[in-house]
From TrEMBL:
Belongs to the short-chain dehydrogenases/reductases (SDR) family. SUPFAM superfamilies: NAD(P)-binding Rossmann-fold domains (SSF51735). Keywords: NADP, Oxidoreductase. This is Acetoin dehydrogenase.
Amino acid sequence: MREFRDRVAVVTGAGSGMGRAFAQRFAEEGMRVVAADVQADALDRAVAELTADGHQVVGVRTDVSDPAAVRDLADRAVEAFGKVHVICNNAGVEGYLDGAIWEATDRDWTWTVGVNFWSVVYGVRTFLPLILSHGEGGHVVNTASMTAVTRPSNMYGITKHAVLALTETLYADLRTRGVPVGVTALCPGTIATNLFLGSRNRPSELRNETETPGAVAGRSKRELMHARLAEGMSPAEVAEHLVAAIRADRLYALTDADWDDRIRERAGNILDRANPVLDRANPVLDRVPPVARTNPPTVNGKAS
Ligand SMILES: NC(=O)c1ccc[n+]([C@@H]2O[C@H](COP(=O)([O-])OP(=O)(O)OC[C@H]3O[C@@H](n4cnc5c(N)ncnc54)[C@H](O)[C@@H]3O)[C@@H](O)[C@H]2O)c1
């Protein structure tokens, strides 16, 4: 999709972080924007700020892990602007970080997989027919992660691998049918957002009744990771990458080259039939490379 003006974008997770930046960037391109988020105060603030800047923005409080709420979001988008051209399935949470994967409860899985993966299933199956219905083309953006293209090491990584697999499958299904709708798997690296404060929106019915032994450790991991993200790329910079990726019809949109060694390491291990070598001394930070930010963003391995 090369033309953005007057087109309609729906962005989930638009109350904070990258979603907020995408909503703004799309609006600055002249798009009409439907901003969705489960956190009402953050959503209201984002909509008020964008509206004050003269943009056409509508806010819809939406829990993306609920298929009926995603359906309602689509209905509200059509009601407001008549059509949808771009859907950004972007809302996500850090999810379960509180112990080994076998120690996670049903509630941990339901929350993490619901917000990070099922939301994308609901977003694709609800919005793609709307994009196809007007024949003007459009684009589906699913926010995956660098953890989707490197060795997963927690529940979050599992969900992001699943998002990438879904996005690649969608891409193939559209292309083999000659359908002119673009697809992007956005793979951000380390971005300065509130991702590791995601538990703020965990519904009470999906919180564990008793504190699991790992919950205290999980809290300190979240604090550590929140501080690490603060050193990362700005959401506005990611929004620039995203707009460029949509214009170029790029499936894999990696925000930087800081994770390339890890991408190669995993692919190399698989091809070599070799087991991964793990940093047992530092299992949390092992997941995130130091923020170099000197690396140029790359397009298919080449500097852009
Ligand atoms: N920050 C990073 O370093 C990073 C890296 C790779 C991928 N990502 C992904 O980027 C996306 C955006 O996250 P962010 O980093 O901007 O974090 P963020 O916490 O700043 O924003 C996420 C937004 O999603 C909303 N949200 C949470 N649960 C929801 C639900 N059930 N329904 C609707 N909205 C919900 C939150 O209220 C918040 O506004 C996520 O999918 C995340 O996994 C982030």
